[in-house]
Amino acid sequence: MEPVSRPGFTLIELLVVMAVIAIIAAILFPVFARARDRARQTTCASNLRQIGMATMQYVGDNDETMFPKQYDDAAGGWVKWSYSLRMPIPRSLLRTLVCLNLVAVSAATS
C-alpha cells in the first residue's frame, strides 16, 4: 500500500504568509489612525458650526442682540449664564466643548 500524501502548507510557507500580513498591517495602522483623527476633526468642526448657527439664530430672533451676560432667576436674583453651564454636562456636550482645543491644535500642526 502506498503512503497517501496530503496536500498542505509547510511551516516556512505559513511563516512567510504571517510575515507578509504583519508588514501590511504595520503599513496600514498609521493610515487608519490618521483617518480616525480626521473623522474626529470633521465631527468637531460640524458641532462647532452648529453652535455658531444656533447663536446666530438666537441673535436674529432677538433683535440682533447677543444673549445677556446674566439673567433674572425665579428667586429674583441675577445669575450669570456661564454659571448655568457648571451643572452636570452630558458627555456628548463635553466632547463638543473639548474639541475646540483639538481643532486649534490640528490647525496649528497642519
Description:
The protein has 110 residues and is mostly helical. 67% of the residues lie in helices and 5% in strands. A two-stranded antiparallel sheet has the order 1-2. A hairpin with a 5-residue loop joins strand 1 and strand 2 (78-80). It is rod-shaped, with a radius of gyration of 28 Å.
Sheet with most strands: 2 strands, antiparallel
Percent of residues in beta strands: 5-15%
Strand element count: 2
Roughly what is the average pLDDT, rounded to an integer? 77
First-to-last CA distance:
72 Å
Low-confidence stretches: none
Continuous helix count: 3
Helix-residue proportion: 55-70%
Order of helices and strands: HEEHH
What number of domains? 1
The helix/strand class is mainly alpha
Can you describe this structure in just a few lines?
The longest helix is centred in the N-terminal third of the chain and has 51 residues, at 11-61. The chain contains 3 helices and 2 strands. The protein starts with 10 loop residues before the first helix and ends with a helix.
